[in-house]
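Lecture notes, continued. The same structure-token format from the folding unit now serves as the input rather than the output. Read the line below as a description of shape only.
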């Protein structure tokens, strides 16, 4: 069961319920992947509203790895999600909100 107070969310990915969390290590991974100099630059990128499909894969994969899953970005890209592209957006948005706002927009399905 995800603990929202630790920034965790739950999401159905690849046919099963999973926990995601952006740990400090996962955030460092995303800084590197996005070429962000620091967390402020990373949050500005997230807040721009302009995230590609590859960005969504990176965010979700980092969240899964932060929760201890051994998955690659390619593994995540192949995982089906209810709602298609909108489902991936919802999961990434909830994960970002849980990490930086301490309150997800809604529970990812």
């Amino acid at each position: 069961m995800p603990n929202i107070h630790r920034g965790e969310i739950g999401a159905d990915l690849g046919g099963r319920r999973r926990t995601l969390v952006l740990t400090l290590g996962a955030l460092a991974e995303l800084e590197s992947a996005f070429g962000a100099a620091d967390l402020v630059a990373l949050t500005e990128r997230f807040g721009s509203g302009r995230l590609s499909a590859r960005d969504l894969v990176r965010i979700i994969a980092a969240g899964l790895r932060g929760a201890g899953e051994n998955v690659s970005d390619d593994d995540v890209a192949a995982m089906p999600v209810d709602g298609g592209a909108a489902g991936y957006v919802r999961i990434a948005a909830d994960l970002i909100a849980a990490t930086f706002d301490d309150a997800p927009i809604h529970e990812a399905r």
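Point for the exam: The chain has a mean pLDDT of 90.
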